Amino acid sequence: MKTIPVVVGATYLANHTIRVSFSDGVERDVDFSGWLTGPVFEPLKDPAYFERFFIEGGTLVWPNGADIAPETLYERAKSNQAAEHLSGLR
Fold this sequence. Notes:
single chain; alpha+beta; NE0471 N-terminal domain-like; two-stranded antiparallel sheet; globular
């Protein structure tokens, strides 16, 4: 059974973007703005509130209980890595 890497570090950058570090060494900048829909994510649209995230249960969580599943974060980070690689080939 393959284990899903979990979040072990995170640093707020700007504009709803966080640099996320995973347990397997992957580290990528993830833009969360596309996920900020629905009632639980509404408070996160405020940058001051967005910055109040913390790591719990292997993922990022906000004070109101909003979170993104670690496997979803990891998939986004890996897709960012692939996009960076492809843009470097041009």
